[in-house]
Amino acid sequence: MTIQTTTHLNFRGDARAALELYQSVFGGHLVITTYADLGMPAEVPGADHVVFGLVAADNGFRVMAYDIPGETGGSIVGGTTTRRENNTTITDQALFVSVNADTLAEAQGYWDGLAADAHIVEPLAASAWSAGFGMLTDQFGVTWSVGVTAA
User: Fold this and answer.
1) Banded pLDDT at 83 (limits 50, 70, 90)
2) For helices 15-26 and 104-114, what crossing angle results, to 10°?
């Protein structure tokens, strides 16, 4: 039996924009279903928000997202800034999304796409365990760990 896990991110109104960014970075197809698509009257606030969202790419990248009903103000739920302090990572986020590439060039492409308006926690650079590793919190509050798979 094969098991596939998919990260599911919970937003406060930014799910569509986040999914569109992730599709632009990782490729694949984008599926968005709004609350209005499932019958919520269009005049109800939040009807245009995402109830089901998915980016799925042939390279294996998958992420799901939705907007919590009645929540506004953007940013991922639990999305606070992660930071480096005294050579350690300090955060109160429940999760990071980790993406590893086969080459530094591939990792750099993902990094560059995610880095727009992001908070850089640790720049993408060679590390003791990898030809490239970096961490950032994107414009939507999601912290990404981007690295190169060790040989």
Assistant:
1) confident
2) 160
